[in-house]
Amino acid sequence: YDTGVYLLFGDAGAATAIEFAESASAASYVLGTDGSGYQHLIVPGGGARNRRDETTGVRKRDADGVLRAADELYMNGVEVFNFTMTEVPPLIEAILGYHSWSHEDVDCFAFHQANKFLLQQVARKSGIDPAKFPINLDKYGNTSSASIPLVLNDVLKSRKSGERLNVVMAGFGVGFSWGAAALNMENTICSELVYVKETQHV
Questions:
Q1: 180 near 126, Cβ under 8 Å?
Q2: Dmax of the chain from CA atoms?
Q3: Quick one: which of 167, 170, 121 has its CA closest to 145?
Q4: Interior CA angle at 170 toward 136 and 7, to 5°?
């Protein structure tokens, strides 16, 4: 593991099934990307540009003194923080405006669970009520693409069956890239979480 980031992350997966309904209201989406920041949050080895081979899995000490292989995630925390604070608050205003919602119309802001301090600063800068902004990093860590489903699972399980919620979801990270969705959720069924015990292979 890359000792610079491995303590931040958790392992999780999620599956979501969406059912068509004639009465469903429209959903709105805003997406963006800025490839100039790619080098700040990346797995350098693998993919089409830098094919994985016998050298990409070899760990070497970088300029920061961190032991890391090209097959492992590299994250420049300062640059990721700056990117998030620059792009995510305008993203929230954009999705609310596009969907014709005010902050008061939203029941839950479900964001990618990247970092508690970062999330708190984004909420403050965006004017989001902390009571509508769940953070569950203490339970799961940063689980990457599974983090928003885990937030929704935690929130929706505590709601009454059939209750209608106005939800804004936002994800951001690798690329740099960002995206948000505004939609109504109702009659949502959340399954119990399944925990898989890690096994050691020798």
A1: no
A2: 57
A3: 170
A4: 40
User: Exposed, middle or buried by CB within 10 Å (0-12, 13-18, 19+), for 36?
Assistant: exposed
Specify burial of residue 26 (Cβ count, 10 A radius: 0-12, 13-18, 19+): exposed
Which residues pair with residue 179 across a beta bridge? 31, 171
- Between CA 71 and CA 118 the distance in angstroms is 26
- Which residue in the block uniquely carries the two structure tokens 């990247």? 114
The region that residue 43 occupies, defined by phi over 0 for left and psi between -120 and 50 for alpha, beta otherwise, is beta
Retrieve residue 68's tokens: 């890391």
Both tokens assigned to 12? 């999780």
Distance CA 25, CA 68 (A): 47
pTM of the model: 0.88
What digits encode the pLDDT tens for the residues 75-108? 898 999 999 999 999 999 999 999 999 999 999 9
**Is the model's pLDDT at 17 over the cut of 70?**
yes
